[in-house]
Design goal:
By secondary structure, the protein is of the alpha/beta class. It has twelve helices and five strands. The protein has three domains: about 70 residues, no CATH class; about 55 residues; about 170 residues, Ribonuclease H-like superfamily/Ribonuclease H (Nucleotidyltransferase, domain 5, 2-Layer Sandwich), CATH 3.30.420. It is about 45% helix and about 10% strand. The protein has a five-stranded mixed β-sheet with strand order 3-2-1-4-5, sandwiched between helices.
Length: about 350
């Protein structure tokens, strides 16, 4: 055994154990555990394995204990003066992380920890270590993620809000004999979309791809009341695909006086073929267009995201027919789930 701590009397060992039982500070408890393990005859290797700490930390704590006794285990940083990372510092850092480096005069579009330290020093004249910044970011709930590309709506903000309010009011005041659905299309690729997945250390999962891509398209409608999905499939994303969905809605909702279809401004939704079909429906179908480039206001977009996450991302299908079969199965199971009555009903 490595004799890195002095022999203690039985009463001193008991005093250490009592202090360990009463300790509420996590860091102080780790230091006490190190000493307790060492004074009870365990060597450094066993202590490191038991407590999952570094060897250097064990030797450092033992040296403080030899020099100052139990008082040497107290965190001496409390006497270092005022804390650098205050609530005000964390609040300011939170706002900085939400912004872009370009907003603060840097010529780099993405944040690094070094850049965040430099930016915070310019704003507060407080300089912290990069490792300290990592701890602060973790406690703020900040993370490194993949940004979402967006296109700004060209409408004035007042007009955009007014249109969205009209659609929300339509849903809220929908008569019992009328139906409202959110409509959108989705591209299905045989070449899988690559997405995040869990892997063990040293492994990078591989997703085989067919090489030559094949595409299919789905046009779907999500019932605003029941969240049930109705869809049609096609080889091309054209007005003909959209019209087939409209007539499927007419068949599905035979008893509905009006079917309100809420959709985006994609060109296939406003062609002459669509106009002819709407006239043939004798007013049973009414289109309500969302503001341009506002996908977040169309709930069916989240259903398509779930479809990608559960079926198409990192898929291993070798044919488009196999992939479509998996998609159909997923959508059928999804509809069964949303139509299942709750226990509270």
């Amino acid at each position: 055994m490595e004799a890195i701590v002095p022999e203690l009397r039985w009463c001193d060992k008991e005093r250490l154990l009592n202090e360990l039982r009463c300790c509420v500070d996590a860091r102080q408890k780790i230091r006490l555990l190190v000493i307790v393990n060492l004074v009870h005859g365990r060597d450094v290797r066993v202590t490191v394995a038991a407590l999952q700490v570094s060897r250097s930390m064990v030797y450092r704590v033992a040296a403080r204990f030899r020099k100052h006794g139990a008082a040497g285990l107290v965190d001496g940083r409390r006497k270092n003066g005022r804390r650098k990372v205050t609530d005000k510092y964390r609040s300011l850092l939170y706002g900085v992380v939400k912004s872009s480096p370009l907003d603060h005069g840097w010529q780099r579009p993405t944040w690094t920890r070094v850049l965040l330290v430099a930016t915070m020093f310019m704003k507060t004249r407080v300089k912290i270590h990069v490792a300290t910044l990592s701890l602060v970011l973790h406690r703020l709930g900040a993370r490194r993620g993949r940004p979402k590309p967006t296109v700004a709506c060209p409408w004035p903000e007042s007009r955009r809000r007014r249109r969205l309010a009209e659609i929300r009011r339509l849903i809220a005041q929908l008569p019992a004999n009328e139906v409202a659905v959110y409509e959108d299309e989705i591209d299905i690729h045989l070449n899988p979309k690559i997405g995040w997945d869990w892997m063990v250390r040293g492994q990078q999962k591989q997703v085989p791809t067919p090489g030559k891509n094949v595409k299919r398209y789905l046009a779907g409608a999500r019932d605003a009341r029941t969240r049930r999905l109705i869809w049609v499939e096609g080889d091309h994303k054209t007005s003909e695909l959209f019209v087939r969905l409209l007539w499927k809605l007419v068949r599905q909702y035979r008893d509905a006086k009006v079917i309100h279809v809420i959709l985006d401004n994609y060109k296939i939704h406003s062609s002459s073929l669509v106009a002819t079909s709407l006239r043939s429906a004798d007013g049973k179908i009414q289109l309500h267009f969302l503001p341009p480039y506002c996908p977040d206001d169309n709930p069916i977009e989240r259903d398509w995201e779930d479809l990608h996450a559960n079926v198409t991302r990192n898929h291993r299908c070798t044919t488009i027919e196999q992939l479509l079969e998996n998609i159909r199965w997923y959508l059928v199971q999804r509809n069964r789930t949303v139509n299942r009555p709750s226990l509270a009903a």
